Amino acid sequence: MKIIIIGLGNTGTLLAERISMEYHDVMVIDESKSKVESITDRLNVSGICGAGASRETLMRAGANLADVIVALTPSDETNLMACAVAKQYGTRFSIAKMENPELCSEKKYYSEKFSVDCIITPKEDTALEIIHHIGLPGTVRAEGFFSSDATLIKAGIDSSSSLNGMAVRDVRNFMETDMLVVSVTREGKLYIPDASFIMKEGDLINIISSNRSLIQIMMKLELVRKKVKKVLIIGGGDVAYYLAGSLLKEKKSVTVLERNRDRCILLSQLLPNAKISCAEKIDEEVLAEEGIHSADVCVSLTGQDDTNLVVSMFAWASGVKSVITKVNSPSYEKLLNRVNIDITISPAVISADKIISFIRNQAVPNVKGDDIECMHRIAGGLAEAVEFTAYDDFRYRDIPFRDEKFRIKKNTIIAVIIRNGIVIIPDGNSTIKKGDKVIVITAGRKSRIDILNDIME
């Protein structure tokens, strides 16, 4: 496929890295010559320096032959215009990033007006991701959410964990509920475990289960989702606005600490039930004055990764029960995960997952397949969790998994079947029926799947 990416910020760069590894024909556009040269020198992609919405630039990039254009510049208006112009020239599908809250509230209108097939809203999506993690202990992370029925969580195993030394086959009985260990990361290497695999101290495991079973699993792991009353948010940007609004609806006590006085005045008007504090600098004294020592959750959302890192480390050292950090650079996310400073959220990763999910679902030419509902990169990017809807196209419907005809690719596992809202952890007697939601875990580039039929040998 030919894919054009406009804008080489964090999301555009990460997206180019990931889709170029999938052997697509990638063209990048940015007004910065140094950014274009840097990425074309490093990756197997082509590049043009120019304005993304320019007709001349888009024609030079081959918009008339492109399958997908992805507009990720800092300007919503530029992104919408670029999509509209590219579609006029013949690009099959268009994806635009929108971040202005006023424009995001009218996504449907702009989608129709500018012929945009998919609009991503990183700030709204980031706030929602944070909401999912509020109250989780630092050793647990929700890695994926599926059809509002199932969740994939990542947990670390230490020397005192009940899972230390346990075989995968024994975990379900220990948990006393339906669940499945779908992956294990050990010393940077990923394993799709079989029943005999022995887990040990230092492993990071991914467990999938129904949402109803999460509390039981957390209790068995001797982990408790903390009851949250007081939330301290550092940084008053749009993500903070979306997040604070959601928390206030849940009757939480919310304090937002922001440097810009004009922004504080605006937030006070938009969020009258929140405490909005203005401080020229954010240091230990200011954080203490704003009650970080009594906060249940500290969420650091400034625009600087360095500041977020320092604030999160201070919150962690101050005994805050749950620390959540927004990281703009994916490399910072890996750093924080290594030192285990609780939970990190990367808008670039969230957006890239959504874009790749759309590309695989809608823009694969000449293939009629099963819908990809969502996709999540898991295990530090070493594997993917993909949710499909099974239709008539799936050739192995109603065949029991134990049947010799039902042969799944290596490094691929069917983790969950969701049927009429009921979560099924499959066994040898299980079958896939029309309309089922099927969650598949794959590891390795060769195991990538675009349609459900791809899981079979």
Provide the CATH architecture of the largest domain: 3-Layer(aba) Sandwich
Average of pLDDT: 89
**What is the multimeric organization of the chains shown?**
single chain
**The CATH top-level class label of the largest domain:** Alpha Beta
What's the N-to-C terminus distance? 24 Å
Structural class: alpha/beta
Total number of helical segments? 15
Q: What fraction of residues sit in β-strands?
A: 25-35%
Radius of gyration: 23 Å
Low-confidence stretches: none
- What about the largest sheet? 6 strands, parallel
Count of domain modules: 4
The count of β-strands is 22
Describe the protein's topology:
Layout lengths: L1 E5 L3 H11 L4 E6 L2 H10 L3 E4 L5 H7 L6 E4 L4 H14 L3 E5 L3 H4 L2 H7 L4 E3 L1 H12 L6 E7 L3 E7 L14 H5 L3 E8 L2 E3 L12 E7 L3 H7 L9 E5 L3 H12 L3 E6 L2 H10 L4 E4 L5 H6 L7 E4 L4 H13 L4 E5 L3 H10 L3 E3 L1 H16 L8 E8 L4 E7 L22 E8 L2 E3 L12 E7 L14
Parallel strand pairs: 1-2, 1-4, 2-3, 4-5, 5-6, 12-13, 12-15, 13-14, 15-16, 16-17
Antiparallel strand pairs: 7-8, 8-11, 9-10, 9-11, 18-19, 19-22, 20-21, 20-22
Q: How does this model look, in words?
A:
With 457 residues, the chain is an alpha/beta fold. The protein folds into 4 domains: 2-120, Rossmann fold (3-Layer(aba) Sandwich), CATH 3.40.50.720; 140-220, Alpha-Beta Plaits, CATH 3.30.70; 237-320, Rossmann fold; 352-455, Alpha-Beta Plaits, CATH 3.30.70.1450. The protein contains 15 helices and 22 strands. It has helices at residues 10-20, 33-42, 55-61, 76-89, 101-104, 107-113, 122-133, 171-175, 214-220, 238-249, 261-270, 284-289, 305-317, 330-339, 347-362; strands at residues 2-6, 25-30, 46-49, 68-71, 93-97, 118-120, 140-146, 150-156, 179-186, 189-191, 204-210, 230-234, 253-258, 275-278, 297-300, 322-326, 343-345, 371-378, 383-389, 412-419, 422-424, 437-443. The strands form 4 sheets. The chain has a 6-stranded parallel β-sheet, with helices on both faces. Strand 15, helix 13 and strand 16 (322-326) form a beta-alpha-beta unit. The longest helix has 16 residues, at 347-362. The radius of gyration is 23 Å and the shape is globular.
